[in-house]
Predict the structure.
Amino acid sequence: MNSVNVLVIGGSDIKVHDFSEMGPIFKDFLEDAGFVVTLTEDLVFFLPQNIKKFQAVVCYTTGRELTPEQEQGLLNAIIGSPWGETGEPKTFIGVHGATCSFQNSQAYLRMLGARFLTHPPLGEKYNFKVIKPDHPTMYGISDFSLKDELYLMEIYPPIETLVTCDFKDFPRPIVWVKAYGLGKIFYTALGHGEEQIRDKTFQKMIINALNWT
């Protein structure tokens, strides 16, 4: 059994990305990979006494707001200050709507590396290019195609882009990593719904990101 305890947190206040359907899919494929998984929509898990036991957070939220205490608990947990209350530094894995979550917190958005702007209508299969195949989170992943919402975002550098998608003459960042304090950030704009979350390439990226933890 993998010793990594993973908090998978979801929930939406705008009636998209239904966590009651998506959460169990995350739980199944992550437990099959050997991780210890806790599913929740309760943001109280971001408070220091609750987030302390986890090594990684997978965030599948959309919308919502953080209280100052929740914001500080989450950020401090990733930073991992040795004198802090949240234990070892965490890896934060943002999925899809994570960039349009917690808009009341600029600190959260800058930690993640982007803010959602818009996307073309869902319905087209896009081609995704792996530009950093040697990164640990890209192990076993090559260029792929997937039907998904193509998130177009305002980027807050520095980020290390791993996967891009060409759209209207520009390569758009789709997957990236970055450091935050002593912790690590991984974000993928993929993962709109059941079809995407069941995709084996998507699942492998999330598993790789957790192994990177």
User: Anything to note?
Assistant: The chain has one domain: 5-212. The mean pLDDT is 96.
